[in-house]
Design goal:
mainly alpha, 49 residues
Length: 49
Amino acid sequence: MISYGCLAVLFLFVMIKLLTYYFHKRKAPSLDQIDTELLSALNRRSEQS
């Protein structure tokens, strides 16, 4: 009976971790967005110098 409880807790833990991974992955910027942000930061830095 205790083993079923442990399995249930483990299952819930895995489900929560998968959900958090999915939501973080969905919010992550795409490679194109990263490239444009890096280029704009470099351009701003070169204009200040």
